[in-house]
Design a protein that fits this description.
Layout: E1 11-17, H1 21-33, E2 38-41, H2 48-51, H3 83-87, H4 94-107, E3 112-113, E4 118-123, E5 129-133, E6 136-145, E7 165-166, E8 181-184, H5 188-199, E9 204-207, H6 227-237, E10 242-245, E11 250-256, E12 259-264, E13 269-272, E14 277-278, E15 315-317, E16 323-324, E17 327-328, H7 332-335, H8 339-349, H9 357-362
Parallel strand pairs: 1-2, 1-6, 2-3, 6-15, 7-14, 8-9, 8-14, 9-10
Antiparallel strand pairs: 4-5, 5-6, 11-12, 12-13, 16-17
Bound molecules: flavin-adenine dinucleotide.
């Protein structure tokens, strides 16, 4: 079947969907490669997820202005910028980081379009992708999905979860009604919630399916909590108002009069007067696009070695959902190392000179050999 004619003004070489760190970082690689026509489409405003973090929530990975000594700031999206340098803060608040992303996009004059939601994507017989957006149709040869996770919270992990309040819906821990709280989930979001509530004087019980805070064989911050969270946790435990219950699996929440009954797998239940806090994680934004991505039973997108969809060639993924076997790229300093890998694939197919990517490799921002990622430190 012949494809409809495409308005040349609406035809791109590459479209990146999502204007968080993954989308902006990918845009910088495309700019360095000299891609002629690309755009970054964002349904809200630049750095939207970070602007929606709870007001008190700060980065757990430190920012440090070490770029001049060849060590790129852990939270930077390229080698030439540093959030620590720009903001002057080691553990950024979400709004600070959104400000940094805005400054980067403006400095490098990235073709960024806000308030542009991608609502439907299909592939035409001529191979182009047809995007229906809130600002009209667009067409592209390659598509990079950078839609993240934060805006796709897991709010249905068990029956009755609708009685809970997911951490991503909290604007500020200070303005929630006072009283003892139950937090369900014991990784970074759950322990951040618990520490913030303890800091304002509450008592908190954390129901966690696993212990993320005791150092053991696991060393990867994708599995255990970061040093900053550990420090905060120690302070919170010293108040005697925090109870951690590892190995506890929640099966349901029920309402009984004024009470919320949290039912545990062991048959026991925990009763609380305030809605339990759900720190039950996030879905990958790719689950919204089943025609573009196949997923494992655990919900992880299936990708080639170059982070291209196995289901739809020409569609790539950047961001925290990228994983290969045991290597999980869930933090900025990890997933930024894959922008150049995707850039190399697209650049090769667009017949571009890939030499600019060597600068990424030289600064540790081009990771195509994953064998190094599972080695533990020497001591
Ligand atoms: C408690 C907590 C603490 C964290 N701390 C750290 C930390 O210290 N350091 C760290 O590196 N990471 C941290 N992270 C993880 C970090 O927030 C994520 O890895 C990061 O936000 C992912 O960036 P992204 O660009 O992939 O996604 P996002 O920042 O979520 O960007 C995705 C963008 O896509 C847009 N979008 C979605 N769908 C569409 C569509 N259909 N059309 C157009 N636009 C769309 C969204 O509006 C959004 O702006 C933390 C996360 C949590 C929950």
């Amino acid at each position: 079947m012949a494809s409809e004619m495409v308005d040349p003004d609406k035809l791109m070489d590459v479209i990146v969907v999502g204007g968080g760190p993954a989308g902006i970082g990918m845009g910088l690689v495309l700019r360095d490669l000299g891609v002629d026509r690309f755009g970054i489409l964002e349904r809200h405003e630049l750095g939207a997820s970070f602007r929606r973090w709870p007001k008190e929530m700060r980065f757990i990975t430190p920012s440090f202005n070490a770029n001049a000594f060849g060590m790129t700031d852990l939270n930077a999206v390229n080698t030439g910028t540093s959030p620590a340098d720009l903001i002057g803060n080691g553990h950024l608040w979400g709004r600070d980081y959104a400000g940094y992303l805005g400054a980067v996009a403006a400095h490098y004059q990235l073709p960024f379009v806000s308030d542009c939601e991608v609502q439907a994507i299909s592939r035409r017989p001529d191979g182009l992708f047809d995007l229906r957006t809130s600002q009209g149709p667009l067409f592209t040869r390659f598509l990079v999905m950078a839609t993240g996770e934060f805006q796709f919270p897991n709010e249905t992990p068990f029956p009755g979860a609708e009685f809970g309040l997911h951490t991503s819906r909290v604007e500020s821990w200070m303005t929630l009604p006072p009283g003892p709280r139950v937090v369900i989930g014991g990784y970074e979001s759950g322990l951040d919630a618990a520490c913030a509530l303890i800091a304002r004087g509450e008592s908190v019980t954390v129901l966690a399916d696993r212990d993320t805070w005791t150092m053991g064989e696991d060393w990867d911050p994708s599995v255990i909590i970061a040093p900053r969270t550990r420090e905060r946790l120690q302070k919170a435990l010293a108040t005697d108002r925090l109870r951690l219950r590892p190995g506890t699996r929640v099966e349901r929440i029920e309402r009984s009069g004024e009470d919320f009954i949290v039912g545990l797998a062991e048959g026991e239940s925990v009763v609380t007067k305030l809605p339990p806090i759900l720190a039950t994680g996030f879905h990958s934004g790719t689950t919204r696009w089943p025609k573009l991505f196949a997923h494992t039973p655990q919900g992880h997108p299936r990708l080639t070695e170059s982070d291209e969809s196995v289901r739809m060639p020409g569609v790539f993924l950047v961001g925290p959902q990228v994983r290969h076997e045991k290597v999980v790229f869930c933090f900025i300093y990890k997933f930024r190392q894959r922008f150049a890998v995707v850039g190399a694939q697209i650049g090769r197919r667009l017949d571009l000179d890939l030499a600019p990517l060597e600068a990424y490799r030289a600064k540790g921002m081009y990771l195509d050999d994953l064998s190094c990622c599972l080695a533990k430190c020497d001591c």
